[in-house]
Amino acid sequence: MRRRPADGLDQVIAAALRVFADKGYRRAQMSDVAREMRVAPGTLYGYVAGKEALFHLVVDRAFTADGHGRAPALPIPNPPPGATLARVRERLAADSALPPLDAALRRARPADARAELEAIVGALYDRIAGAWQGIVMLERSALDWPQLAHVFYVEMRRRLLQRLERYLAARAEAGALAATPSADAAARFVLETVAWFAMHRHRDRDAALDEGTARRTAITLIANAFTRTDRGAPGLRKERRRR
């Protein structure tokens, strides 16, 4: 019977997360994970029954802190067909929930539009930053797993973009935030800006930013982009129009 260190499962998850993020699910092999851990390939089978079980374990544990529950019985068996995609869908639905955005969509007009936007961007940043390694893993794996691509890009990402688009369009229509040529493009600008600072900067060798600076910069730049600058006094606005 193989001996398993107390923190061995966490080491397996961390190594598998790196391998799946680099290679994607289809191309990754158990031997790649063993090499990443610097252990014999057979060691992994004391923890999981195979690659299917390993990927499911990473999906279950790698996104947010609430994935760490009671230690499972080892070795973890391979999941039944469809179980992993169902778990991905469940985790992404939970991690894409943004209460500040949902509250804003129910609100006709905010007392402070900039503060409202900053709260939304901050919540989005925290969601992505807390799960960035898992998101990278899913993005890479989705390249050659069509069903996963549909769950990730259509069911999660597209719906999030649609919510951001509705919010930005409503606030621009009300005059609370600056209008843009395209609310759809504006929503993508927000998401991709946050994604770089919260996630992609970790894989950019030239990006030496600590977490606090990255978060504040993303929030400030996006808020500055959408804060209206034409809110002078009525008399001043009339004077400008006469000129």
Write the layout of secondary structure elements.
Layout: H1 8-27, H2 30-37, H3 41-44, H4 51-61, H5 83-95, H6 99-106, H7 113-130, H8 132-142, H9 146-173, H10 183-198, H11 211-226, H12 234-242
Textual characterization of the structure:
With 243 residues, the protein is mostly helical. The radius of gyration is 22 Å and the shape is elongated. The protein has helices at 8-27, 30-37, 41-44, 51-61, 83-95, 99-106, 113-130, 132-142, 146-173, 183-198, 211-226, 234-242. Helix 1 crosses helix 4 (51-61) and helix 10 (183-198) runs antiparallel to helix 11. Residues 232-243 have low confidence and may be disordered. The longest helix is centred in the middle third of the chain and has 28 residues, at 146-173.
Quick structural overview:
With 243 residues, the chain is mostly helical.
- Given as residue ranges, the uncertain stretches (5+ residues, pLDDT < 50) are 232-243
How are helices and strands ordered from N to C? HHHHHHHHHHHH
The residue fraction in helices comes out at 55-70%
Task: Please report the number of helical segments.
Answer: 12
Report the sheet with the most strands, covering strand number, pairing sense and barrel closure.
none
Beta percentage is under 5%
Q: What is the residue-averaged pLDDT?
A: 89
Termini, distance in Å?
87 Å
Question: Can you tell me the overall shape?
Answer: elongated
Number of strands: 0
Q: Kindly name the structural category.
A: mainly alpha
| Structural Rg | 22 Å
